[in-house]
Recover the amino acids of this structure.
């Protein structure tokens, strides 16, 4: 059976915000899904219905309404676990991917790193996969080393191999798809190298899980993190997917309600997984919404989602290739990259580009994209980034090309 | 919401294309670097004060968008020759203008008044303020120390 092609116009019709005009009155051309995705009706409806029909605090409630709320919440977890091939007890809800990285850095790193140990990250990490490790390294005396980016935006794995061979590396934390370069990193190879050297691994899948088939097993990582709002789901919920046997041996990250088995004056014991890592009232409606988002993506088929993305990225690279003097970062081959495409123009600063194309209703991001070490490696203070998703069409990509031409004409006037 | 022409006025673009007092000083009294955490842009402002605390030379360098670069250029022209107190007053008037307040009738910000429209683009206010905040840091640091401070 061949996978159906993705019908982006049908998806578009499901996403109400795309029907509103931009501030300038032009149709909205949303090309910033790497920052956050827009939300289809089934997600909005699921969250709305939860609040209207089933809201109660989860777990421990005796009355039927609380049981129903718990059931919807846990269904969200089951949906997410199925989507990435994790076990429900190894599928922990956090506030976002950042908090999920912090969870691992604190629950594991704080207790298992000692002075002289090395945590390896890469030059293309989002700050969320750098700063928590720097903080925990500061507390434990460990060091953070960076794998450099070379050639057309790929990792220099020889450096990783050297680090693993010569340094006491305890953790390799790597992004699956770069939020700036779009590079798809060979995470299965990287996590295998880490494991062979006796190190743990964490994969930041924030830009991959929404866009292509991804499973925890295929990444080979001990821990994988991603966020709900980039995959058609709501803000306020992120996911840590990990091997339950590993998680079970870790101490909690945050303490409070929901995560305990017993609390006595002299000390406390912890709840079973995954609740041990979910202190306080969890993001209930958000889990319901994320579950709906996952089912929506499953309905589209992740192979079709990926094929659509490759098609649009091919066109985006061609459009930018036609813009005079444009520098496009990251791999040239769309098959080797995800959705984010960063570029710069010698005569227009990214802020000015984003401001001027907004006039035509085109939403792109300008700045350092929370990846300042990468910006320094590229030798630029900032880039402009366009990123597509399931509701984007070839027309959206072409609109960016036209808006860039008129931005240049505007700034070049006089 | 202001139109894009309010943001990219001819005055602003002319300073962007031909920035005044761009560069560095060889013997500044103080040199401050400010960065815009939103976009990573950096600006360095070098100031030479005479014994009376008057700005006799000012130079700006770094990378930035049309708004931050033109703001630095316009600021450099306006504050040249002013005393520290006068410059600090201009900084405050400019800061308020970025929050939507018209400058008082007795204060002339010069070409910088062309940036008044930036107040309607919240994401760009920080760009326009960048050189002014660098100057503020610079002026605050002299008098307290002769060391070159390292601004955020």
């Amino acid at each position: 059976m061949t996978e159906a092609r993705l019908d982006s116009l049908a998806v578009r019709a499901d996403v109400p915000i795309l029907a509103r005009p931009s501030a300038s009155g032009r149709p909205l051309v949303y090309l910033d899904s790497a920052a956050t995705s827009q939300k289809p009706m089934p997600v909005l409806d699921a969250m709305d219905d939860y609040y209207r029909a089933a809201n109660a605090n989860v777990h421990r409630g005796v009355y039927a309404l609380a049981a129903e709320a718990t059931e919807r919440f846990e269904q969200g977890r089951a949906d997410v676990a199925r989507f990435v091939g994790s076990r429900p007890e190894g599928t922990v809800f956090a506030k976002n991917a950042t908090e999920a990285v912090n969870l691992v850095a604190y629950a594991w790193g704080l207790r298992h790193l000692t002075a002289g140990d090395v945590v390896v990250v890469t030059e293309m990490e989002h700050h969320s996969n750098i700063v928590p490790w720097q903080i925990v390294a500061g507390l434990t005396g460990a060091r953070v080393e960076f794998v450099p980016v070379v050639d057309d935006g790929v990792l220099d794995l020889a450096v990783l191999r050297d680090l693993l061979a010569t340094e006491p590396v305890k953790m390799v934390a790597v992004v699956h798809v770069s939020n700036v370069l779009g590079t798809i990193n060979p995470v299965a190879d990287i996590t295998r190298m880490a494991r062979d050297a006796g190190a743990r691994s964490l994969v930041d899948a924030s830009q991959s899980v929404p866009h292509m088939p991804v499973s925890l097993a295929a990444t080979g990582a001990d821990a994988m993190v991603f966020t709900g709002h980039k995959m058609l789901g709501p803000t306020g919920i992120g996911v840590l997917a990990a091997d339950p046997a590993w998680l079970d041996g870790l101490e909690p990250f945050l303490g409070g309600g929901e995560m305990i088995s017993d609390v006595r004056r002299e000390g406390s014991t912890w709840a079973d997984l995954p609740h041990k890592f979910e202190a306080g009232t969890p993001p209930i409606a958000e889990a319901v919404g994320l579950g709906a988002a996952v089912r929506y993506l499953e309905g589209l088929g992740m192979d079709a989602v990926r094929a659509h993305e490759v098609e649009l990225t091919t066109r985006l690279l061609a459009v930018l290739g036609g813009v005079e003097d444009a520098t496009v970062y990251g791999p040239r081959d769309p098959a080797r990259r995800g959705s984010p495409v960063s570029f710069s123009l010698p005569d227009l600063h990214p802020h000015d580009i984003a401001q001027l194309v907004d006039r035509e209703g085109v939403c792109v991001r300008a700045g350092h994209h929370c990846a300042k070490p990468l910006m320094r490696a590229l030798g630029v203070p900032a880039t402009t980034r366009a990123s597509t998703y399931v509701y984007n069409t070839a027309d959206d990509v072409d609109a960016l090309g036209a808006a860039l031409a008129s931005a240049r004409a505007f700034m070049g006037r006089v | 919401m202001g139109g894009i022409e309010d943001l990219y006025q001819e005055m602003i673009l002319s300073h962007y294309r031909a920035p005044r007092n761009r560069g560095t000083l060889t013997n500044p009294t103080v040199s401050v670097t400010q960065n815009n955490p939103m976009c990573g842009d950096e600006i360095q402002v070098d100031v030479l004060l005479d014994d009376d605390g008057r700005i006799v030379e000012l130079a700006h360098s770094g990378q930035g968008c049309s708004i931050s670069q033109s703001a630095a250029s316009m600021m450099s022209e306006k504050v040249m020759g002013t005393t520290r107190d006068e410059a600090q007053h201009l900084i405050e008037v400019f800061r308020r203008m970025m929050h939507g307040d018209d400058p008082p009738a007795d204060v002339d910000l010069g070409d910088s008044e062309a940036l008044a429209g930036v107040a309607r683009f919240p994401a760009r206010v920080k760009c326009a303020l960048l050189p002014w905040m660098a100057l503020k840091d610079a002026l605050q640091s002299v008098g307290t120390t002769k060391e070159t401070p390292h601004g955020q």
